[in-house]
């Protein structure tokens, strides 16, 4: 059974309202996205800034109130009584900015033990202390770290503290919201390797959100690509990276500068991402798409299974003819 | 003479409330005319400080230049230049593109005003002429409808557009040296590729030298001819880009390259580097990299390594390259 | 250099560099210590407070001991600050004045803290329409000149120490409410508050564990700066006759009395006025210093 099944999730924000509080301008940050996560699997989610990938994760967790859609946790709707608490406890989150996601006025021990206290996981202070040390050890931090404050740590160490906190409740799935993009290259590897290691030890599932496609490819079993609030492609990691279906995925991959002086320079795609407040008609990617046809300008492509296990929303998959 | 900028033994210290902190230590960098060099390293390694020190943009109250350092601009030492002399040099002979295109532009002035400012100041032309020039510049950096953009404010432009406008500003007086301080870090991949493409084509057209500062090895590999690798305030390795990427001599460079995922071999575990960059207030003795190094030797913990020449301008500061080390290997 | 130098070192033997722990408090204090003006302010505040508490206990006169024989005496070893027109020792009256003025400052800012934090906290936390209406009310009250408002309240309440506390307290909370609301609104968007919600922290605990401790800096600064404001307003009220009633004396009353005999006995004006000015400056310096030391943004930069 699927661990998480997100169906037709939509999130709209009111950007501007009149003096009575009635909405005037609405931004659709996530538009009808469906995605399932199996137990123990890593699903990568890539896209450029503002494409709604973080909002998507936060909306599932209920940090933003969703506009439409359902989230099934082990086949049960999380809006039902009882399911929600279960879901919240077993799905945790790691944040992008390790400077901002830890309360500066709490010691590391206080931060890590907060989820444990919330769910009364430890009978007494002795147990709590033991569990905090155990969690610190799992993320390769010295137990001496417990009494220190976040500002005394480097970015990579803070991210480890964030991971320890997410692990505290023995989750089944962790949403990693750009967990490595604020870190140095050499430290990124440490965090990625640790996440992979923890996955094997605890059978964790990850929703790994990032804009660095090569790193996402390295860690993910499946990759989803988002553009302007919509999921445009989803499929097994290697096939999406090496044989992208959607023209947007193709341009994303072509734009990565390769760390090889002998390789040909990256090819820039034309155009700019349009403002999410005034989306183009039809397929949202058509103004930048090299294959755009009359059809793309008028009709929004449907989300369909192009090959077994590979989905895309495009009229001209791989630049080919209309299917 | 082919050398444009020759930085010798540059050390910069800052006065902070925790005491004096040395941000860069004995950095020597050469930039030839029309050449793109890269400075690569992780946050806090001193790459930006180096560029700001050359442009003399560091806060005067807190930054201290070491007494023995030299910054030779076409044979003249500019360390002792006054603010006035520097102003003549900045903008006209050397200019800079900053990392964050949002904060580097003044939000209350139009794009046109900001580009014209430098033009009117350095070339002493009328505002009218300057506006005409500015429009030409915007067109040159690939901005569509430049006559409209001139009268827009920074917040009306997208991130990529802003970075292009900044490049246009930096190029206004056709400088001979352009510092690009993480010019694409704040941008998305597709925009990054556009900006890099633009920089490359502008350099071919205008023939200026570029010092590209980045933490992204991909960007460095694609843009630069020569590379300097910095760690904890020191240059640890330098050389032609092919040598650095194909035959890295310093364990730090090696570790950086091993940190990048290889798309062809997805299941190969990444090596990376253990530990984290040192706090500049608590630097290790000897080689600054030894606590994170795989090949630490006794001497690394006692003495900082000198720079060893590996031929073709390839240099690295690491005890592994010491000829004396051969003797030890023979004994054991 | 000898060949043994090139012997490899087992990575396990490399001792990591230990960086001594540094708490937020120690860092804030270090920053304060470098700020000479703030230290001066702190010194003044401490001295004034101890004088106000202990001063009257050690003097040989009380504030209403009259000695007509010694009326309007110039400062002398017997009466350090001289005496007033009724022959009361001016030093003692200034010391008692310190008690009243400082206690008014303290009480007014405590009431202001109480109302301001709760009002601003609710507006910020609930947000939306409630926030908009609550802040419009603050805006309207803000548009009434503060002194006018206090004077009106005093006229209704009648002069007296307790009523001054109340009037000042309920007049000066607007600023605090605004600051607290702004803080809560920005804290709500912080990742660590988001994180706390994601692992199931209740709203009450988010408020008490995360938001209030992180608002403390600006609250303390506003509080420190509102104390001299309250003292000054009280002085003004007493000066125009709406303050504490005789024979009690606040610095405002003393200054007002001193003005009458300014020409002939200037010391009767100078001493209380100086005490008032020094205390106000002390609080201002301390408040500014605290603002620099407690600002989290400052601290992140200080890390480098």
From TrEMBL, chain A:
Alphabetic keyword roster: ATP-binding, Nucleotide-binding, Transport
Domain of life where this protein originates: Bacteria
Residue ranges constituting the ABC transporter domain according to the UniProt record: 4-253
GO molecular function ontology, one term from the record: ATP binding
Coiled coil residues, start to end: none
SMART domains: AAA
InterPro entries, sorted: AAA+_ATPase, ABC_transp_ATP-bind, ABC_transporter-like_ATP-bd, ABC_transporter-like_CS, Oligopep_ABC_C, P-loop_NTPase
An individual GO BP term: transmembrane transport
PANTHER family the record matches: D,D-DIPEPTIDE TRANSPORT ATP-BINDING PROTEIN DDPF-RELATED, TRANSPORT ATP-BINDING PROTEIN
NCBIfam families named among the record's database cross-references: oligo_HPY
Family per record: Belongs to the ABC transporter superfamily.
Name the record gives this protein: Oligopeptide transport system ATP-binding protein
Phylogenetic classification of the source organism: Bacteria, Bacillati, Bacillota, Negativicutes, Veillonellales
Automatic annotation (TrEMBL), chain B:
Keywords from the UniProt entry: ATP-binding, Cell membrane, Membrane, Nucleotide-binding, Transport
Membrane-topology descriptor: Peripheral membrane protein
Domain ABC transporter span(s) in chain numbering: 7-257
Subcellular location, record wording: Cell membrane
Domain of life: Bacteria
Family the entry assigns: Belongs to the ABC transporter superfamily.
Protein name: Oligopeptide transport system ATP-binding protein
Record organism: Megasphaera paucivorans
Taxonomic path: Bacteria, Bacillati, Bacillota, Negativicutes, Veillonellales
Automatic annotation (TrEMBL), chain C:
Residues annotated as transmembrane: 37-58, 100-125, 219-245, 265-286
Entry keywords, A to Z: Cell membrane, Membrane, Peptide transport, Protein transport, Transmembrane, Transmembrane helix, Transport
Cellular compartment(s): Cell membrane
A single GO BP: protein transport
ABC transmembrane type-1 domain segment(s): 98-287
Record-linked Pfam families: BPD_transp_1, OppC_N
This protein's name: Oligopeptide transport system permease protein
